[in-house]
Amino acid sequence: MTLASLAIFAGALAIAAGSPGPSIAALIARVLSRGHRDVLPFLAAMWIGEMMWLSLAVLGLAAIAETFHYLFVAIKWIGVAYLLFLAWKMWHAPTGTEGSAIPDAGSARKLFFAGMTVTLGNPKIMMFYVALLPTIIDINSVTVAGWAELVGVMLAVLVAIDLAWVLLAAKARGFLRSSRAMRIANRTSAGLMAGAAAAIAAK
Question: Where in the cell is the protein located (predicted)?
Answer without folding.
Answer: Cell membrane
